[in-house]
Structure formats: C-alpha cells, structure tokens
Amino acid sequence: MLPTDKHVITQRGKLMTHFEQFIQYRALSFKFKSAGMSLGVFERMLANKSIGTNQDGTFVPTESLEEALPFKVQNVCAKLAQPLVDRLDEALGVLGMTKRDFIELALIEALDKVDQVLKDTDAFEYVDARAEGDE
Predict the structure, then answer these.
(1) Contact of 51 with 42, CB cutoff 8 Å
(2) What kind and span of H or E run contains 54?
(3) Where are the alpha helices (DSSP H) in the chain?
(4) Are the CB atoms for 72 and 39 separated by under 8 Å?
(5) What is d(CA 89, CA 55) in angstroms, rounded to the nearest whole number?
(6) What is the C-alpha separation between 90 and 59, in angstroms, rounded?
(7) CA distance 132 to 127
(8) Are 105 and 92 contacting, i.e. CB atoms less than 8 angstroms apart?
C-alpha cells in the first residue's frame, strides 16, 4: 500500500502526493480509453474474428484491416538500430502499449510540431511569392 501523505517532486518539478499521482494516472487512463478505438484494437478484434458481416443470416468474419475500416491504411516500415528497437520494446512493455499506437501518436505529435515550425518560420514565404509572381 502506498503512503498517501508522502509528497514527491515530479520530473517537471511539481509537488504531488502519491494519491494525486494515482488520480492523475487514472484520469489520463480514462481519457485515452474513451478517445475511441485505435487500429491496434481493430487488429485484435480481427484476430479474434469479432468483426464481420451478415451474409444470408451467417456471420462472416472480416479478413483484413482494410476491409474493416472506412479509410485507407498503409504500412510504414523502417529498419532501425537494434539498441533503439530494444529501448522501444522495453518502454512499450512498461507502458502496456502496442508499437502501432505508440508510433501513430509519436508521428502525429512530430508532424504537428513540424507544421508549427513551418508556420512560425514562414517557410513557404518565397514559394508563395514565386507562385504569386507566376499568376
């Protein structure tokens, strides 16, 4: 049992009790569970034959992720150094996350940051000026 009156300083320098940390953990857990199904959940449902169609009164399991989703999916693959893969696997084991969910969230955050830097630096200033000159 965790002591409820002990205060710890988090990595961000915030003073929190174990209880406050636990409540924050539970709130974040709820937040992301209620965000909707990830592709990893769809894959597990496919593996369990839980997604399918009714064909003449008979349940026919869907065979592929592409058939189950209303949008196109594409495989993104890259060879990575073994130490990085080991680190990823270890972190995902601790977090209880799939590689797909982690990579998807990381890519979304990284691309949002790229979009913001491109906007902040007016990266397309000369491209836009050239396009306006061609008109």
Answers:
(1) yes
(2) strand 52-55
(3) 18-33, 39-47, 65-68, 82-95, 99-120, 125-134
(4) no
(5) 40
(6) 39
(7) 9
(8) no
For the whole model, what pTM was predicted? 0.64
Q: How far apart are CA 46 and CA 43, in angstroms?
A: 5
Please give the single-letter amino acid code of residue 53. Answer: T
| CA 66 to the chain's CA centroid | 19
Report CA torsion sign: 87, 88, 90, 94. positive
Q: Name 5's Cβ contacts closer than 8 Å, sequence gap at least 6.
A: 17
Q: What is the pLDDT of residues 20-70, one digit of tens each?
A: 888 888 888 878 776 766 777 778 888 888 888 888 888 888 888 888 888
Per the structure block, which two tokens stand in for 122? 């007016």
Residues 6+ positions from 2 with CB-CB distance below 8 Å:
18, 19, 22
